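dumping this here so i dont lose it
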């Protein structure tokens, strides 16, 4: 698989080969949905909080005596059925919405999203994107040049969630230059994740060769051979001295006693 590479002026400069293990994966909606929902849940910060009857101030004194008044018995004026009392089953900021995501699931979901974006023609490879000064005017000229490429006309015109700009290495001038564009999000390739990619229409990847090598290395695990596996330390068995039988011990003791008696005589 091959695709075109462009420069920041919008001109074609070459081609790059794509690995089928990433960009040829079929769509798996269930896996992507599970990973995206889990990542969104992990980012969730519960703010809403209500006080129960133990948190509300006051209510330390029993409103009236237990019997003899003709009224219902009450132990606190901060009961949920009282005005000014606590809230029953209300939201609290102690809730935990986090969900566990397996590493391989998260990486495969990222690859699936990248493959689908590539099939839809929404990934643009730029050989190098750099700015001499962190100016919005220069950033806009770059977007104007990229919008001239066929299929990417909406990079500049889309008002919201236009493009995710993935830099191979961090560049402060580029980050500051695109900061005034509300529809452009600048980040590094190492921080790519399915949740952020799906928010934006286009994905612009700079320095494609290095970036693709990094993406491939995320799932590449070294398969250990038998010799490289964890070595089992074989300890030599300790020399065990067998205890003599009780009968032999008794006979030896008797012999020693007899010899002592004979020697005295």
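and the seq i came up w/
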């Amino acid at each position: 698989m091959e695709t075109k590479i462009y420069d920041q002026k919008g001109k074609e400069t070459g081609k790059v080969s794509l690995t089928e293990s990433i960009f040829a994966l079929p769509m798996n909606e269930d896996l992507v949905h599970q990973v995206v929902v889990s990542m969104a849940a992990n980012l969730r910060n519960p703010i809403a909080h209500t006080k129960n009857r133990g948190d509300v101030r006051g209510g330390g004194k029993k409103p009236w005596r237990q019997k003899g008044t003709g009224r219902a018995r009450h132990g606190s004026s901060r009961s949920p059925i009282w005005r000014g009392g606590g809230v029953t089953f209300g939201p609290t900021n102690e809730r935990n919405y986090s969900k566990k995501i397996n590493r391989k699931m998260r990486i495969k979901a990222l690859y699936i999203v990248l493959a689908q974006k590539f099939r839809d023609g929404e990934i643009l490879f730029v050989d190098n994107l750099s700015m001499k000064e962190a100016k919005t005017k220069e950033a806009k000229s770059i977007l104007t040049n990229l919008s001239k490429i066929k299929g990417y006309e909406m990079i500049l015109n889309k008002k919201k969630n236009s493009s995710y700009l993935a830099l191979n290495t961090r560049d402060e001038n580029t980050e500051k230059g695109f900061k005034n564009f509300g529809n452009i999000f600048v980040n590094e390739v190492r921080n790519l994740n399915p949740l952020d990619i799906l928010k934006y229409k286009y994905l612009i990847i700079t320095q494609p060769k290095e970036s693709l090598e990094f993406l491939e290395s995320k799932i590449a695990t070294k398969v250990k051979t038998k010799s490289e596996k964890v070595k089992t330390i074989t300890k030599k068995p300790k020399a065990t001295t067998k205890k003599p039988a009780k009968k032999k011990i008794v006979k030896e003791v008797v012999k020693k006693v007899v010899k002592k008696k004979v020697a005295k005589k």
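The first helix runs from residue 20 to 23.
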